Amino acid sequence: MSSVRPPDPRAVRSRDAALASARELLIEQGLAGLTHGAVAARSGISRATLYRHWPEPPDLVRATLALHITLSQSRPTGDLRADLLTELAGTRAMLHEPASEQGMRVMIERAAVDPKFAEVKEALYRSGTRVVRAILADAIARAELPAELDVDLAIDQLHGPLFFRRLVANRTFDLDYVHAVVDDFLRCHSTKPPRQQGIS
Amino acid sequence: MSSVRPPDPRAVRSRDAALASARELLIEQGLAGLTHGAVAARSGISRATLYRHWPEPPDLVRATLALHITLSQSRPTGDLRADLLTELAGTRAMLHEPASEQGMRVMIERAAVDPKFAEVKEALYRSGTRVVRAILADAIARAELPAELDVDLAIDQLHGPLFFRRLVANRTFDLDYVHAVVDDFLRCHSTKPPRQQGIS
């Protein structure tokens, strides 16, 4: 029996190959192309293996997005402006990386009609906003943001413009745009006197 | 020949029946359910008629959304805060009406992988932001907003939080939320001294 062996390197390679193919299909065709059959055909991994790792299509999308969210999250330093800029730069990167961008688009469409996608989306929303929520809570604790700040609204004001511009207006944007969103937010809410802030 | 007759009332009824069925299918199943075959089966309208009016599925989504956008748009009065509140209340209504909400979700997903959807989405984005753009331009002309205001960013800051909360966070929201978004925006950007603003 194989149950006491360490992870089989071939199994790891199979998993990576399957996710790479899933990623390509998601970028090229959206969710419609992301079937277990299509992933099997492209990756050469058996359907049985695919179903064992990812029983349903939402699991394939989740696997792709969860990796990107983990990679894009920053580690706050206690400097409010710098921390917001770093974290939103990660969000910007996710919105411009073809697989994670398309994964988010798929989630937005499917979550409204498929409970399994809705559940995956809720988990991704929570993990995707965890760091910015912590940054805001810490700044409130340091009295750099007002105690009465509506943190959920603040998250919408920080993330919302980025998502709207990329996914609704279908425009790309650069880091200057992220700076403008963060600096407007701080100008509106910061309890500290404004300082001269460059756009770069 | 029928070419000189006025519009046939039966044709109008057929068109309405087809759009009503398209709307139901969009709400229930998302884009996957919105095929000409399914609309024909539900509405009793022939496929030939459907293809004549709406050659492709994006045309069916566009017909649904265009109507909602037209209905939701307000007529500015020259009072910046009141105009923004009225216009964003219309956006809020679209985000909470099942057919237009689902239509926007479909557009967000499909526009990235289907050029025909991307074209329809661009047209809808332009018409959907036309009034708020006019409100902002008029306020700049009246010097109630600064001449250097980045209007595209301002549109993202006004619409972005609403779209993010409804389509990404998957939360509903009420008019108090719309007031908070507008009042924060004005507090940040208005050239007029702030006045006491109630939340209702």
UniProtKB/TrEMBL annotation, chains A, B:
Residues 12-72 form the HTH tetR-type domain. It comes from the Bacteria. SUPFAM superfamilies: Homeodomain-like, Tetracyclin repressor-like, C-terminal domain. InterPro entries: Homeodomain-like_sf, HTH-type_TetR-like_transc_reg, HTH_TetR, Tet_transcr_reg_TetR-rel_C_sf, TetR_C. Transmembrane segments: none annotated. Keywords: DNA-binding, Transcription, Transcription regulation. Residues 35-54 bind DNA. The keyword Transcription applies. This is TetR/AcrR family transcriptional regulator. It comes from Nocardia xishanensis.
